[in-house]
Amino acid sequence: MDNKDFENFLCINEEELFEKTLYVVSTPIGNLNDISFRALHILKNCDLIAVEDTRKASILLNHYGIKKKMVSYYSKNQIYRTDYIINELLSGKKVALLSDAGTPCISDPGSILISKCIENDILIKPIPGASSLIHSLVISGFNSNRFFFQGFLPHKGRENILKNLEKIRMVIIIFESKYKIRATLKDLMIYFKNKEIAVCRELTKVYEDIYRGKCKDIDINKVKEKGEFVIVIDNNSP
Questions:
Q1: What does pTM read for this prediction?
Q2: If DSSP codes are grouped into helix, strand and coil, which group holds residue 158?
Q3: What class, spelled out in words, does domain 15-127 have in CATH?
């Protein structure tokens, strides 16, 4: 394969955006440099950007000098806002969907909109990029051939969920906020006492932390209650 064939294989040239298309764009999870050239091209050339939080999205867009119309699309307004976005797409608009950080639909809004796009024969194109889920799994050092993604534990009924997770013989990944991280780690000690875990905080940022060791040995009081957390549990063996 010569260089020209290789360029065509990699789709190096900037693509022309399609009308009536939803672009699901992954954005950085902390470090603004972790965005692809393709993602920036999409954001610069789309007609509308649907974002979880316009204030947070503005930080990224302003950093790269992108000025586009934005519309908020988050958990509490996604039902009625989906209709608006679908109508914009059906009129021929090119729309980019962003979450606050990382890949949309991974414990973030987006699945309802994508389902509606499928129902209306609207083209959907994924624009790959950062995902705290995958990056935490990779740096955990655990066997990652199979894993179970729990996402955030619910407020109610978490005891039953943890009992079920305890039976799953593979790596388990849990999201948690700064408000509940210590309480959740206490709960995990009951069910995963002797299992190796990696508690990843604020990945890709200058002050990222990774706490490693057996679940029972993690000093909860030293886990900073700041930022977002991804907990990776090696539950491959009994």
A1: 0.91
A2: helix
A3: alpha beta
- From 213, 209, 206, select the one nearest 224 (Cα to Cα): 209
Q: Model confidence over 126-175: pLDDT tens digits?
A: 999 999 999 999 999 999 999 999 999 998 999 999 999 999 999 999 99
CA distance 42 to 47: 10
Compute the distance between CA of residue 46 and CA of residue 42 in angstroms, rounded to an integer: 6
Residue with tokens 């867009």: 61
CA 70 vs. chain centroid, Å, equals 20
Encoded amino acid at 154, one letter: P
Domain residue spans of the chain: 15-127, 132-234
Looking at residues 225-230, what average pLDDT do you find?
Answer: 96
- C-alpha 157/C-alpha 231 separation (Å) is 19
- Domain 132-234, CATH class in plain words: alpha beta
- Residue 197 · residue 170 · CB < 8 Å: no
